[in-house]
Amino acid sequence: MERTNSKRLDSFELTIADIAEADLDALHALSMSVGWPHRAEDWQMVRELGKGIVARDAIDRVLASAMWFNYAPDFTNIGMVITSPRLQMLGAGLWMMNHVLARTGSRAIGLNATRSARRLYGSLGFVAERTVYQCNGEAVAPPEGSLPPGTRLRTLTRDDLDEIIALDLAAYNADRTHVLARLLGVSKGVALVRGDRMAAYSLCRRFGRGHLIGPVVAANDADAIAVTRPHVADHAGSFLRLDTRQKSGAFAEFLAQSGLPVFDTVTSMSLRRPWLVEKTGSETPIIYGLATQALG
Ligand SMILES: CC(C)(COP(=O)(O)OP(=O)(O)OC[C@H]1O[C@@H](n2cnc3c(N)ncnc32)[C@H](O)[C@@H]1OP(=O)(O)O)[C@@H](O)C(=O)NCCC(=O)NCCS
């Protein structure tokens, strides 16, 4: 029998299937294979909130994934794009993305690209817009600070959903009601109230290695800090994460002082129309913290 030191094996034959049919543990194994922190529960959550596809080999192993989250009226966020390391650089990522683009039609698309994916998306026409700073670490009790004058904090309840949706829509420019409704049910939420109006809100939930603060929506750094501080205080001593596009300024400094330095960056990219329209005027709310990179 021939026993050489190298042998060429047949390449994989992949078929596309609906992610809803994939085994949760297989998805979890796939994301772990590329070093992502998602738990099976985190996969379960994104599967409830979006649509997706997986690529399976001949013996039904899940070797790639891609998801998209449709927000009203015509915006889609793409996420959870993964190719198993043994399959990378062979065109599977591009093949999956072409399937996703065919299924999302003419909708405007946003995504947060890791370094390894940026060129792939660029080759599909996606344009880089902003950097997202993934800030995480062991939280430390945040520096003391007073609330902005004329404001108070309160805990969110399910009854606040409509007000959160309105604030989020003004900041995100697309309606992600179903995401917010689901996250509110599993998060601790804080609102900053000015007069009788909600000026800022934040949610915090279990995710990955610990807890994640997001979304955070506010019109300025002081308001954003006010709704973020209680979550940092709650989780002092344990792993905490917040993804933000704030590179510098009071909010970025607050995160660094809270034990959440920049751990990694990704790039927000868009297709068909600009996504992150610059806001002028301090009254307009913006996204200070992402729900997750996949959900935007
Ligand atoms: C990003 C990721 C999905 C890309 O998947 P992939 O299957 O390697 O993607 P592709 O093979 O289609 O393309 C990757 C590169 O390989 C190149 N390539 C494709 N076919 C090739 C071939 N036959 N020979 C050599 N190179 C090839 C592509 O040109 C591309 O290079 P470029 O982007 O520098 O032009 C994968 O690397 C991954 O899962 N990374 C970890 C998780 C992650 O970061 N996901 C992205 C979230 S936004």
Automatic annotation (TrEMBL):
The N-acetyltransferase domain, residue ranges: 14-154
Keyword field contains Transferase: yes
Entry's Gene Ontology molecular function annotations: acyltransferase activity, transferring groups other than amino-acyl groups
Keyword rRNA processing set for record: no
Coiled coil residues, start to end: none
Domain of life the protein comes from: Bacteria
Gene3D superfamilies linked: 3.40.630.30, 3.40.630.90
Keyword set, alphabetical order: Transferase
Name by which UniProt lists this protein: N-acetyltransferase
